[in-house]
Design a protein that fits this description.
Length: 303
């Protein structure tokens, strides 16, 4: 029994890896003949979307490829080898922050230029609020030191007379009010820092995608990632996965899923800004372009 158990434990992973390699070979040499089975992997609820809604988006994305050629290219399975992950990190966090601020962006140069103006506006407001905070903090420390020295002096004398006690109590109330105002200023500064960081993250991703020759927009404080890929497809060692990192609308989600599913079919990027397989997700089109369709038919051997 022990030997059999060891043998099973040893064979399992190899059989799984072998199965994955076979699936990859089938996809390479006999594409579109057998549907690619996908499953739901990591699912972060911070995106505010249910698993059911997400899987419907995947189904909509696969239909984009299937309907034009009348073939079942993908199918959901709880143990499908192509795992689709929804991963929340600094990318979606930045997008969510801008959305709460009423800032919407797309992958166009005009949107980039508009957001760049906003970046410098907010950074200027941040610098002004920081100066106000630093001035207020220095003044508060000065008043606090003076108050503490007086209190210590009267305590050393055995206590203050009634009139001085009343005056010091009034000063203490004024110090509390200063501290409250100081905390409010600090909250304002922190709000601007968060806004600058979020805009910088998105701007860096847009600059990279649009191939804009500019220096990196700096974030403040916490270290942020430099890449702003909305999604990514990987195939390695018999394993396939799609990671989705960011989307601002349901339409964008369907398009980025369709794009990565295209890569899972073995398709490369194509020309045409409205194409599903265009390198930038800047269109709202949810249909295959002529370039997409030509690439798909070529891959599937359809004339």
């Amino acid at each position: 029994m022990v030997i059999a158990g060891l043998a099973y434990a040893y064979r399992g992973p190899i059989q799984e890896q072998f199965g994955g390699l076979v699936a990859n070979l089938e996809a390479t040499f006999t594409p579109c003949q057998k549907p690619i089975a996908y499953s739901l992997g990591t699912f972060d609820t911070r995106f505010g979307i249910s698993k059911e809604s997400f899987l419907r988006a995947v189904a909509d994305a696969e239909a984009i490829w299937e309907k034009p050629i009348g073939k079942n290219l993908f199918q959901y399975s709880s143990d499908g080898r192509l795992a689709v992950h929804l991963i929340y990190d600094y990318r979606q966090e930045a997008t969510d922050k801008l959305k709460r601020l009423g800032i919407t962006v797309d992958a166009s140069r005009a949107s980039y230029d508009s957001l760049k103006v906003k970046y410098y506006e907010v950074k200027s407001a941040l610098m002004q609020s920081q100066k106000q905070y630093e001035t207020a903090l220095a003044l508060y420390k000065q008043h606090l030191d003076s108050y503490n020295q007086e209190v210590e002096s009267w305590n050393a004398k055995g206590g203050a007379p009634r009139s001085e006690f009343v005056r010091l109590s009034s000063e203490k109330q004024s110090l509390d009010a200063e501290l409250s105002a100081l905390k409010s200023l600090q909250d304002t500064v922190n709000g601007y820092v968060d806004e600058v960081n979020s805009i910088a993250v998105v701007l860096n991703g847009m600059a990279n995608a649009l191939n804009v020759d500019v220096g990196k927009y700096n974030t403040i404080g916490a270290s942020r990632g430099e890449e702003f890929t909305e999604g990514d497809y990987q195939s390695k060692g018999g394993e396939q996965k799609i990671d989705i990192y960011e989307f601002s609308t349901q339409n964008k989600l369907v398009r980025v899923l369709a794009h990565e599913l295209g890569h899972a079919l073995g398709l490369e990027h194509v020309e045409g800004s409205t194409s599903i397989m265009y390198e930038l997700n800047q269109s709202t089109n949810e249909k295959l372009s002529s370039q997409d369709l030509a690439a798909l038919k070529s891959k599937c051997g359809i004339k």
